[in-house]
């Protein structure tokens, strides 16, 4: 399989803001190949001046695993240019969706799964803006992995001391109206499990979680379409809130 050609197709779709058919429609490939494509995509971004800033987890709900026919989470990589401030520009996205997140701040280099929880320097409520590069937001497992797990933008609120996050109530509002409510328990039963999986998968790929990196533990609710000129607020019980306005 031509990893370079697959990465070029996805990279062009991102830069042209153009939805494409699933890659597997014409060139079926497996999960290891998908991660090789993902890695090349990230290497292209870093070659253009972006810096790695963390890891995002996907398929962290049992229902999604069953739907996709998998028994493990997937992951993607974040860069500094994916971090949104108080305003998020959606003009470079194809069909953005947003979901509430639990976010971990890594305080020191993580060399083993056993030490990842003790390496957490802070926790926060956050959001992730997803944007599949595929038509109609439809894909197979290898397709979505190759597409960097649909990563687009992310943000988070104020950092808090590490704590038990196994059942944090989350509310996401769009223009003052509730859009989603849920609990962090939807993230593998406890987002700490997702954090450990992030360390396991990163180490398995030859990466270490670095100081200053963040881990987006996964969605606590389904993602919803995100329009322009919208104001979004995500609130987590005991974690405050984060807000973003789209343009």
Automatic annotation (TrEMBL):
Gene3D superfamilies: Fumarylacetoacetase-like, C-terminal domain. It comes from the Bacteria. GO terms for cellular component: cytoplasm. InterPro entries: Fumarylacetoacetase-like_C, Fumarylacetoacetase_C_sf, Hydratase-Decarb/MhpD_sf. One of its GO terms (molecular function) is 2-oxopent-4-enoate hydratase activity. Residues 96-245 form the Fumarylacetoacetase-like C-terminal domain. The keyword Flavoprotein does not apply. Keywords: Lyase. This is 4-oxalocrotonate decarboxylase.
